[in-house]
Design goal:
Elements (H helix, E strand, L loop, with lengths): L9 E4 L8 E8 L7 E8 L13 E9 L2 E17 L4 E8 L9 E6 L4 H11 L21 E7 H12 L10
Antiparallel strand pairs: 1-4, 2-3, 3-6, 4-5, 5-6, 7-8
Amino acid sequence: MFNLANEAHFTLDLPGLEHDFRVLSFRAHEAISQCYRIELQLVSDQPDLDLEALLQRNAWLGIQHGEGEGTGLHGLIHHAAIGEAGKRLTRYRLELVPHLHYLGLRHNQRIFQHLTVPQIISRVLADHGIQSDAYSFQLGVDYPERDYCTQYDETDLHFIQRLCEEEGIHYHFRHSP
């Protein structure tokens, strides 16, 4: 079966928000043990969307591969900007990042005692509202308790990345709506 030329192969879903965005293009940057970034170029019939209302909102970029098949990428809207306005359509740019990205905005000084690295990471994530049902550890070995673990003037993101590097742990993201 052939796909029609005017059929949308990429869609943007913003739960709880009515919109008429159409995806022109997107670029995704993703690597192991790093936060991903998805840059979207969109058009809308509405020239005056409230961009502030879009920030921090969950988004799902749907990718249709064929009849009935599809996948996608998810994230929080981190950046929203208006582009050129034509006679009928206005361009918009959005940037999606994972919730984990926001751990890079807070510096901390604290001490963890008698915890394993996975337990420390879980506590840091919980401090940011990332609950245990949003991630999973698939570790092959048991990690020893650390008598004393210090975070000193580093972001929460850098801190957990440092702990992962020290223990040989990597992380990646699974995208789901």
